[in-house]
Amino acid sequence: MIRVSGVVKYHGSTRVLDRVTLDIRKGQVAALVGPSGGGKSTLLRCINGLEAFQEGEVTIGENLKLTGGSTPARKTLLQLRRKVGMVFQQFNLFPHMTALENVMSGAVYALGQERAQAEVIAQQLLDRVGLGHKSSSKPAQLSGGQQQRVAIARALAVNPVAILFDEPTSALDPKMSAEVMRVLNDLADDEQFQVTMVIVTHDLHAVKRIADVVHILVKGQVTYSGAADEAFATGGPIEQME
Predict the structure, then answer these.
(1) How many domains does the chain have?
(2) In what order do the strands lie in the sheet with 162-166?
(3) What predicted TM-score, i.e. pTM, was given to this entire model?
């Protein structure tokens, strides 16, 4: 589903990603964890084409590829945006739009979906994340946790094959964080939901509950890739990381 092969990324003279290689299968919930500055968020941005990288390759699905050392064609980036959604730390909602309009925006403006159809789907997605009653509210009228749930619904609205979550709870207090993680947990437990999820987070308790696989990044290198159960075993990689 997502294959990262030998990716090298520099920020100036600093090697932020050092030949990162990992595979994420369709429908998996994969967690990227590790110390701050390990390259986790940078890797997500490389997978989604938000940052260029110098060496290696990222493959989404069968044939959508980003290659190190080259600038992706606009057509490739458009295809990527339609296949891979992203949820950021700071929500990035359009402040002048209601929750419903925010969720509709990608489907209408990126996919060219009819507004009436997009509105029905957007309302269903707001219901799914527990915010059906807030469809007419603008971001300033919503709590941080509610804004993040709107952002998740917006990412789902374009029917992506994968969604990348970049520390989705880091800007939230514990109560709001629990609200967002509950939504992610519900999605992970839904057998009808086949979207691959890749989550960067420092919330190891949440990772233990919802992740199928764990990839640990330390100083830009993958030090562990494997089943979450093994990662959290007594004396396992997570304990050693801590």
Answers:
(1) 1
(2) 84-87, 162-166, 196-200, 29-33, 213-218, 221-227
(3) 0.92
Q: For the chain, how far is it from start to end, CA to CA, in angstroms? A: 30
Q: Are 218 and 34 in contact, with CB atoms under 8 Å apart?
A: yes
Residues with Cβ within 8 Å of residue 97, at least 6 apart in sequence = 105, 138, 139
The structure tokens listed for 72 are: 């992706």
CATH number of the CATH domain containing 158:
3.40.50.300
> In the structure encoding, which two tokens stand for residue 23, read together?
């595979």
* Per-residue pLDDT tens listing for the chain (242 residues): 899 999 999 999 999 999 999 999 999 999 999 999 999 999 999 999 999 999 999 999 888 999 999 988 888 998 898 899 999 988 899 999 999 999 999 889 878 889 999 999 999 999 999 999 999 999 999 999 999 999 999 999 988 999 999 999 988 998 999 899 999 988 888 877 778 999 999 889 889 989 999 999 999 999 999 999 999 998 899 988 86
Q: Which domain holds residue 129?
A: 2-241
What CA–CA distances, in Å, run from 156 to 86, 105, 114, 215, 232? 9, 11, 17, 24, 29
Q: Is the dihedral of CA 17, 32, 45, 176 positive or negative?
A: negative
